[in-house]
Amino acid sequence: MRSIWKGAISFGLVHVPVRVYSATKSHDVSLHQVHDKDAGRIRYQRKCEICGETIAYENIQKAYDDGDRTVVLTDDDLAALPAERSREIEVLEFVPPEQVDVLRMDKSYFLEPEQSALKPYALLRRALEETDRVAIAKFALRQHTHLAAMRVRDDVLMLQTLLWEDEIRVPEFDVLNEDVKVTAKEAKMAAQLVDSLSGDFESSDMKDEYQVQLRTLVEAKLEQGDALDTEATFGREGAEEDAEVVDLMEALKRSIDKRKADKGESSADAKKAKPAAKKKTG
Q1: Could you tell me the strand order of the sheet in which 62-65 lies?
Q2: CA distances from 167 to 66, 85, 203, 234, 266 (A)
Q3: Contact 11, 248 (CB under 8 A)
Q4: What pTM, to 2 d.p., does this model score?
Q5: Residue 275 binned pLDDT confidence (cut-offs 50, 70, 90)
Q6: What percent of the chain has pLDDT over 90?
Q7: Average pLDDT of the chain to the nearest whole number
Q8: How far apart are CA 62 and CA 70, in angstroms?
Q9: Domains of the chain
Q10: Cα of 180 vs its chain's centroid, Å
Q11: Which of 109, 129, 185, 204 is deepest in the core (most CB within 10 A)?
Q12: What's the rounded Cα separation, in Å, for the pair 268 and 270?
């Protein structure tokens, strides 16, 4: 397998350098298109609609079109977005597995540790197994900020990207509004069948930071007048660096001490807020 991305898992003050590999592959038969008359291969060319030339991939840039104007986004523009520059898989929280809705699961990736990170990698893997928790993390890959669930599979840490809140459709089926009568006996048998064949994840406050920053970039270019007439862009009528590994025990100790200190401050604030008890007078 060939790695597609290189970064580091971050939990507390511990960094675990890893390489990311696609965990799945398609078994579809690859097809192409041909001319029905002579079976000649049909190929698509990347032609510029202004000059008519066929354009190489290295000379192609991305652009945003709002219907009237087009904003060209260079590779440097996209690379400058903070979320895209990040090479960190940041663990946000640890949740029970049953709180991760299977509907949200998208692509799966295996995480291979660098040689220098075998111990912290094994530590995180063991912690997930013994606590029966899934790590919720976020990272930037291919022009998106991804939300992901990190779990253990066959001694390997893996990431499963999760769909964002606004990517889940709400089913609206009128037929379900019809009144259906289910007898007590039918319900009991169904429950027995389920039993014979037989775990407060919140993501509404999380945002796809890359897309937010990309839209801000587009709007900034529009405000600065750095845009073209959309029709003028068509030739037709009409419109890695490795993360630095800190000392494992020291990082763990500092993380725990910080959590204790935070809890201590919260307790102290609560005591200050509580009114003092009145002394009894005899």
Answers
A1: 62-65, 69-73, 228-229
A2: 22, 24, 12, 32, 36
A3: no
A4: 0.57
A5: low
A6: 29
A7: 80
A8: 10
A9: 1-24+73-164 (2.40.290.10)
A10: 40
A11: 109
A12: 5
